[in-house]
Amino acid sequence: MSGKVPQVNLVFDEPVQRKKTPKHLADFGPSERKAFAEELGFPGYRASQIATHYFSHLSNDPKLWSDIPADTRQGIADALTPKLIELVTTRTTDNGMTRKDLWKLHDGVLVESVLMRYTDRVTVCISSQAGCGMNCPFCATGQAGLTRNLSAGEITEQIVAAARACANGELPGGPTRLSNIVFMGMGEPLANYNAVIRTVRNITDPNPDGLGISARSVTVSTVGLVNGIEKLTEEGISVTLAVSLHTPDDELRDTLVPINNRFNIREVLAAADLYEKKTGRRYSIEYALIRDINDQSWRADLLGRLLKNRNAHVNLIPLNPTPGSKWTASRREDEAEFVRILESYGVPVTVRDTRGREIDGACGQLAAAEKASPAS
Ligand code: SAH
């Protein structure tokens, strides 16, 4: 393990990009979209027509846009809703109920999203950055470093593609609706704050301004960037906050989640508590169980004591071993003991199911595998 502390963009600057991502309707709030259309030489009212096709009808076929003059449809579509993500490969498992899409961005950068159908919901796990700068040693994405931030358009496109796949009946079981969005793909969402918030609003704004999905169905998962959590608290959107804690003691967390050297456990939990107070939303603690590293019963005990008076829920994730790492998932009996101890403190706990593991669905591995041996 290296003790390298990741560099975080603390001032929430605009992303530094190598080649500018084309602007997209989804980069703008509803009140700015009219000006965006006008700047491109279209009447302002076209913006809400295109937003209706995009967010309400999930339509990417301008030929069907009968409220727009036929000869201008394609031009308007290309200008306002340029195709920002192109499908490279799709891998499925669980009889097609889990599907992982690898996307190529305009500059050739690869990101991925995972769509999972359950009996009662359909969840998409999306990427907010290409790579990640947080350098957590157990995470495949972290090993590759940060390539760049995604724009709101690029993040939103992953979600709209998932919603379209659901509506088109591409998953077994027939047409359905996308119900949940989790920012648990590649990247640290709060290190790409503005684009992530714009995306959350695109998800939660009612049709036709957005997808009209409730904020409580959206989970933003963070390593614990305290300033980002504080900003989110002021935002007035009640998404579910997930904090990747992974251990209750600063000594180990300094190495498992290197940003802990900057924002320690006490500070992160205090920020999460304030978020909970303001929004009334219980938050999640993510905890990847790593054999003989963070799965000892004394750590379960410490975690129980840390969380027993907090409105938090623990989500245990059996470690998905990354290539070349000597770490592996906990023994079954250690996992069971960890759960038992947390429950003895009255702390709600679930063990995450490991959907998509066979297709490297847990942590940025498809993009990594693709680089190593590109699909023909
Ligand atoms: N940057 C965000 C999102 C990361 S992915 C965050 O850190 O929260 C979502 C979750 O998967 C995080 O809790 C992350 O720590 C966890 N994770 C990463 N690699 C993993 C692995 N190899 N096995 C299990 N969980 C992993």
How far is the first residue's CA from the last residue's CA? 35 Å
- Biggest sheet: strands, sense, closure? 10 strands, mixed
N-to-C SSE string, H for helix and E for strand: HHHEEEEEHEHEHEHEHHEHEHEH
State mean pLDDT (0 to 100 scale).
91
CATH superfamily of the largest domain: Aldolase class I
Heterogens: S-adenosyl-L-homocysteine
- Choose one word for the global shape: globular
**Percent of residues in β-strands:** 15-25%
CATH architecture annotation name of the largest domain? Alpha-Beta Barrel
Helix content: 25-40%
Strands of the widest sheet, in order across it, are 1-2-3-4-7-8-9-10-11-12
Instruction: Tell me the radius of gyration.
Output: 21 Å
Number of helices: 12
CATH domain class of the largest domain: Alpha Beta
The CATH topology of the largest domain is TIM Barrel
| Global structural class | alpha/beta
Structure summarized in a few sentences:
The protein is of the alpha/beta class. It has helices at residues 30-39, 46-56, 73-80, 140-144, 152-167, 193-204, 226-235, 250-256, 265-279, 297-307, 332-344, 365-372, and strands at residues 85-93, 98-105, 110-117, 122-125, 129-131, 146-149, 180-183, 218-222, 240-244, 283-289, 312-318, 349-351. The structure holds S-adenosyl-L-homocysteine.
